Amino acid sequence: MAAQIATGASELRDITKMERIGAHSHIRGLGLDDRLEPRENSEGMVGQAKARKAAGMILKMVQEGRIAGRAMLFAGPPSTGKTAIALGMAQTLGPDVPFTMIAASEVFSLSMSKTEALTQAFRRSIGVRIKEETEIIEGEVVEIQIDRSLTGATKTGKLTIKTVDMETVYDLGTKMIDALSKEKVTAGDIIAIDKTSGKVSKLGRSFARSRDYDAMGADTRFLQCPEGEVQKRKEVVHTVSLHEIDVINSRTQGFLALFAGDTGEIKPELRDQINTKVSEWREEGKAEIIPGVLFIDEVHMLDIECFSFLNRALENEFAPLVIMASNRGMARIRGTTFKSPHGLPADLLDRVLIVTTHPYSDHEVRQIMQIRCAEEDVTLSQKAIDVLALMSKETTLRYVLNLISCADTLARKRKAEVVDINDVQRAYSYFIDEKRSVQWLKEQQGVVYEEGESYISAKNDVMDQS
Ligand SMILES: Nc1ncnc2c1ncn2[C@@H]1O[C@H](COP(=O)(O)OP(=O)(O)OP(=O)(O)O)[C@@H](O)[C@H]1O
Ligand SMILES: [Mg+2]
């Protein structure tokens, strides 16, 4: 079985998600210059210079293939751009390096064990670039000659094909004749035939024949007759993730399971076989491993079992760079009664590089607001900007960004182009933020149903904003 491990083709990339204006749709990269210095305001990113630079450095190492099996943690108060920076990293990496993003709670909600879910996420983040050599026949068709048998059941024929330097005659069987007539190949066409699959592709028509016919479709491409030998070797490269190779080889329905998402648990023996095979390919120079990035958001939601699995998995031969984010300060480690920084056990913390994010200054908040306004196509009056910037100090950046679109809807209702301070005020009165919601609950004591424990205020659990 290990001898024929299928890898599928490059079409197996994830289907791109539909574009819409989401919370992070203004983020287009990390906004760093060539020396990895963060620009003040670039690619949708503002401020948070240290964290961006750290992210950029790590990325550089990933791109050079120098780092794998490391872990990094973004720690900071809510809405200070941890998720935004991770998305910026994903966009900088380019299409060939795998980037997987999961929220820690996803591990619990799938119909498989926690460790299997984590293993799949790990293997999804490792790319294998496979080089394959195929033989192709490429040249200009001189003549196609087809002989039918008396009954018409079998066809045989000859294909004469030439390049500038040589001319060759090939014998044709029924299948090839069908393939050629399906592509409507005639003399004067430049074609390529894949020798392994027998696939015929029409590349265009020869310049030499361009004057033979006047009636020609507008989309006809004229090409020079190719040079060199008729039969050539060509190298094709495609990148798949280890997880894709696992899935294709694990089930009878093969890669269909990839689209259905119904991958189930994959046997460790199969993974071992695939690892061995991929290592073999690597030694033979047929494949290259591209360690990618796995981003685990809200990592404090993982439990102690997952953390101990992570410790071990990071030391595995095929481990990606793991980036985690948490907004917790001292928090209980899920599954235990111990408290620990960021809700992560000490032995894992010891393995990670920690990068902190900080609340934004007034100037930065204004710039982020401006970027969001451009993204959402909203115009704010100067006073509205002032009041929102002031509000962000009392509440959070995210609340303020949410208010922009609400206030815009109110402004549109009164048929105004510019969102004014009144619209913001009204939106502020309709939608309360976290602090006011706590206040409101206090006032409503006894009216709203309450559960035993009292509310864990932001001060206790979430990282301090000051
Ligand atoms: N430096 C920045 N430049 C531009 N936009 C930013 C920046 N930082 C944050 N934002 C935007 O602010 C909002 C909140 O940021 P984000 O979701 O990244 O916070 P977070 O640190 O992940 O918070 P949480 O801990 O609550 O998950 C998002 O819409 C994000 O795109
Ligand atoms: Mg986040």
Automatic annotation (TrEMBL):
Ligase among keywords: no
Molecular function GO labels: ATP binding; ATP hydrolysis activity; DNA helicase activity
Key words of the record: Activator, ATP-binding, Chromatin regulator, DNA damage, DNA repair, Helicase, Hydrolase, Nucleotide-binding, Nucleus, Transcription, Transcription regulation
Chain coiled-coil ranges: none
EC number: 3.6.4.12
Enzyme class label: hydrolase
Cellular localization per UniProt: Nucleus
GO cellular component: Ino80 complex; Swr1 complex
AAA+ ATPase domain segment(s): 68-346
Any one of the GO BP annotations: chromatin organization
Reactions this protein catalyses: ATP + H2O = ADP + phosphate + H(+)
Main subcellular location of this protein, as a coarse class: nucleus
Subunit structure: May form heterododecamers with RVB1. Component of the SWR1 chromatin remodeling complex, the INO80 chromatin remodeling complex, and of the R2TP complex.
Family: Belongs to the RuvB family.
Cited function: DNA helicase which participates in several chromatin remodeling complexes, including the SWR1 and the INO80 complexes. The SWR1 complex mediates the ATP-dependent exchange of histone H2A for the H2A variant HZT1 leading to transcriptional regulation of selected genes by chromatin remodeling. The INO80 complex remodels chromatin by shifting nucleosomes and is involved in DNA repair. Also involved in pre-rRNA processing. DNA helicase participates in several chromatin remodeling complexes, including the SWR1 and the INO80 complexes.
PANTHER family, alphabetized: RUVB-RELATED REPTIN AND PONTIN
Protein name: RuvB-like helicase
Source organism of this protein record: Sparassis crispa
